[in-house]
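Just wondering, does anyone understand these tokens?
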Amino acid sequence: MNGKVHSAQEQVILTATGGILTSIMIKTGDIIRTGYVAAQFETSTLQYRLERAKLAKFNGEKEYLSQLLGYESLLKDRSKEQSEDIKQKLKISTGLSSAEQDIKEANYEISKSTIYAPFTGIITDLKVQRGQQVRPGEELFRMYDPNNLLLQVKVLETDVYLLKKGTIAEVMPIGNKSKKYSAFVSEINPYVDVNGMVEIKLKLTSRNLQTETFFPGMNCTAIIKIPMGITLIVPKEAVVMRNGKAVIFTLEKGLAKWNYVTTGKENDKDIEIKEGLKPKQKVIITNNLQLAHDAPVKENVDSDSLTESVN
């Protein structure tokens, strides 16, 4: 089965603000840690706004306190809620509330002018450079966690019952199948699509993947190793139903022998036989729908099947 690699933690880093990038401290392929400063926007205009807001707040506080003195006698006879309402109106009328809000907004925009790494990972698709004018919401770069890589594949709905979380797998890049990486089933999507397929995710467990040429978006082949134990597998056409029970005919000394069997797991071609057959028995897989017990049969060597004799 084939699929594409992706990381369980990958993110497009966008800018919340616009302006000129004064510095870029990363390059494509760098491994950076959570909180690392990746880029910095020019903030002089924002700093000027902040200083003006602080000055306005200073003047507003002076005017607010001056006017508040004239309300002292009035406030004594009012409830706490009424007093707070009067004070709030004074802050608005003197411009103090507006200045305090301008300070908050300026500080917020200044904080957004520094771009930090949201997690530890590898930088990819760096799209900007130092001195560039960037618009709000523009993509700066991407990053992903190389220690949390997954392969997303699809399996037939008839095969999904053979799988469980933790089932071991092996992953090989299509471009270099000599490279093999360990993995296991980490997620089984409980949904069958219109094509009868179920999506599963394989978690890569091989160490030092970040030092290998193993990237998100890479096409890979996966082999899932299902522990079946000692079991017998026969073609599905070998099983016929008689009186509501599963029957398999075997060849013994030129005669067809009727065997009740207990079936197990199956896919679109084969079926597991839990009871009723022994290893090395020859199983009749064609012309068996109307076959009777002890009917003479002959082996068709060319097709590796057994057919009922017409003699």
About this structure: The two ends are 46 Å apart (CA to CA). Residues 44-111 form one domain. The longest strand covers residues 181-192.
